Amino acid sequence: MVLPVYVYGSGVLKKEAAPVTKDYPALSQLIADMWDTLYNAGGVGLAAPQVGHIIRLVVIDASAFKDDDPAANGFKRVFINPEILEWSEEKSSFNEGCLSIPGIHEDVVRPKRVRIRYLDENFQTQDEWLEGVPARIAQHEYDHIEGILFTERLAPIRRKIIAGKLQNIARGKSGAGYKTKIV
User: Fold this and answer.
1) Which of 90, 141, 146, 152 is catalytic?
2) Number of compact structural domains in the chain
3) If exposure means fewest CB atoms within 10 Å of the residue's CB, which of 75, 85, 113, 154 is most exposed?
């Protein structure tokens, strides 16, 4: 089922998410709904707070970038309780967007590689280094479960330039081509 995506101005996006336990109600259904929502909105990553669940759950499908980055080819993961353990010192800039901030894309500097530990959808521990686009998406979605939006990573002058657009989104004028919600 496609869920509404909470957009800029929704308090749920600014809260630090709680860990997920195996007995979280209807977790498998929530994961399936998050995949449906992600694909319906044309995104590459989605964190549970973006659909109103303040838990540490993320889904990522980086396949849309497979022609630009070989690391993105076939990269589809469920991250439960992810922890970024290490970051590379080398950084790169990339033009990011966000389903919760429709219509705004800005260059964001992030580490090129990250080591992340998480539980997969079977609650099996995974520990891997991600690089390129998958690392970028994982960091963006990790920020969501920490209550951070990508616009907070911009230089103050860039935030000032897009302030009016952000206010329009918060007023319900997002123009997104998918279901959105503000709470």
Assistant:
1) 141
2) 1
3) 85
Question: What pLDDT, on a 0 to 100 scale, did the predictor assign at position 175?
Answer: 86
Task: Name the token pair of 99.
Answer: 């389903």
Residue keyed to tokens 């616009």 = 151
Give the burial class of 100: count Cβ atoms within 10 A of its Cβ; 0-12 exposed, 13-18 middle, 19 or more buried. Answer: buried
Q: What is the mean pLDDT of the chain?
A: 97
- Taking only the tens place, the pLDDT of each residue in 8-57 is 999 999 999 999 999 999 999 999 999 999 999 999 999 999 999 999 99
DSSP category for residue 21: -
Please give the DSSP secondary-structure letter assigned to residue 78.
Answer: E
Here the CATH number for the domain that contains residue 20 is: 3.90.45.10
Q: Which two tokens stand for residue 107?
A: 């260059």
Question: What pLDDT is recorded for position 183?
Answer: 87
Q: Cα–Cα distance between 133 and 124 in angstroms, integer?
A: 24
Q: In this structure, how many other beta carbons lie within 10 angstroms of the beta carbon of residue 71?
A: 17
Catalytic (active site) residue 86: no
The structure tokens 């497979």 sit at: 66
The token duo for 14 is 């600014």
Tokens of 83: 């922890």
Does the pTM exceed 0.90? yes
Q: Give me the residue label for tokens 């990573």.
A: 153
